[in-house]
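We examine the record.

___
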Amino acid sequence: MICSTTLFAQPTLVKQGHRGCRGYLPENTIMAMKKALDLGVQVLELDVVISKDNKVVVSHDPYFASAISLQPNGDTIAVEDEMKYNLYTMNYAEIRKYDVGSKHNQRFPKQQNSPCFKPLLSELIDAVEEYARSKGIRAPYYNIEIKSKVDWDDKFHPKPKEFVELVIDVCKTRSIMRRMNIQSFDIRPLKLLHWQYPSIALSYLTGNEKSISENLQSLGFTPNFYSPYYKTVDANMVNYCHENGMKIIPWTVNTRAEIDALILLKVDGIITDYPDLF
């Protein structure tokens, strides 16, 4: 299968930079992805949403989050108002005017800030690929999360079928289909991809209290990767994944001690905001 026969088949730990390297640079920006490569990651983890004019935008939220965003005039966005700044109601030209790099994210004291914008998925891939070539390093894999919820259909994003097609179209034009997987908490896009694009590697994100068997029963098939919240991982979960032909990639692990503990459990990869911890 795509991905799993190459990088993810290796016995060594797969190192993934969460939103690039959110601990050090503004999340989901081109600069964060380049820095993650400098820190030695093999996989760039990122999120995508859709604009009003059907552009695939790299962003964790389908709105401008108060914690990291400034309006085009430099004003902040109140927490209670952030969901009013809905990217699905804005054309990308308008989205690009907002600054998501200057405001310091208080959760990450080491984060360095400078003005930047939410990039298109296409331009982020182009920039990363060129950067890898210029540095003489191997081009990375991409772990692309589709950010969707049932309640948000046609409000904050299109329905899954359209969402999936928009993302896949970009990935095809950038020739990364053999260096990517799609992940989501929402089982709907994963099910669509499983049936329509069976060669694409899929990762099921979970953060609930259900057992792994319960989660997989809801999904309805066995994905290439199971990506649980790291505090839910134990030896039984790791063994279950390996016995059923899945790789297990916990998120988001931000201390060396926790990384070491998961390595002892024989996880296949780790997603972190601080890739230098590897």
